[in-house]
Amino acid sequence: FGDSSCQNSPFVYTGDTLKNGWEQISTGQFGWHVQNGLSCGGTRSLAAGPTLDHTTGTGNFLFTAASLFPIPATDTARIESPCIDFSNESTAGMSFWYHRYGGDIGDLYIDVFANGTWNLAVYSLVGHSQTISNDTFKLKKVVFNQFANQVINVRFTAIYGRGYNGDMAIDDVEFYSPIAQDARIENVELLHPSCEFDTASL
């Protein structure tokens, strides 16, 4: 993601560059903006959103600008990935870092396009994840093996919350093929005679 301006206006994405085939498909005032936290001082809202990106603290992140009034309550912000090829993979998944702080924070959904159909809300984040702007981003890994052996698109859909303090952010989105679980520990026997318990179940 590239950003050459701190200006984030309704319907305008001045200086915002989405790389590697990502597309901004928001149609209303509520959209995804590229921001450099270091040079822009975080997001527009003083009591919402992160102050810096996840990767280096000097780079860019994507965020939804909830402070661009007036925003209709039904507005959604959408950003869509290029085609992701899992056609030769038996598992499918993605990871991303997210920041969700603000008293008016809305919901975030992950939709997946496969076989000509959008599968809505394959995963969702609801409510707060951070308590202050300076809190670090959190990692989320999503496994959607039902879309293995297919070519898919992934869409982040953010729902506008209740008002000004609802900036949410994502960073460092990656797609990968998770390693299938092939073993697990169900029981551990402690054989040392001095141990208080003979068996511990997991």
Descriptive report:
With 202 residues, the chain is mostly beta strands. The chain has one helix at residues 37-40; strands spanning 2-3, 16-17, 23-24, 32-36, 60-64, 76-80, 84-85, 93-100, 108-114, 117-125, 138-143, 151-159, 168-176, 187-189, 199-201. Strand 9 and strand 10 form a beta hairpin. The protein is globular and about 60 Å long. The model has no long low-confidence stretch (mean pLDDT 81).
Main sheet specs: 6 strands, antiparallel
Overall 3D geometry? globular
Overall mean confidence score, pLDDT? 81
> Radius of gyration from the CA trace?
20 Å
Query: What structural category characterises the helix and strand content?
Result: mainly beta
Low-pLDDT segments: none
Kindly state the percentage of residues in helix: under 10%
Number of strands: 15
Please report the distance between the alpha carbons of the first and last residues: 43 Å
Strand content bin: 35-45%
Short account of what is shown:
This protein is mainly beta and about 200 residues long. It has one helix spanning about 35-40; strands at about 1-5, 15, 25, 30-35, 60-65, 75-80, 85, 95-100, 110-115, 115-125, 140-145, 150-160, 170-175, 185-190, 200. The strands form four sheets. Strands 3, 6, 7, 9, 10 and 12 form a six-stranded antiparallel β-sheet that branches. Strands 4-5-13-8-11 form a five-stranded antiparallel β-sheet.
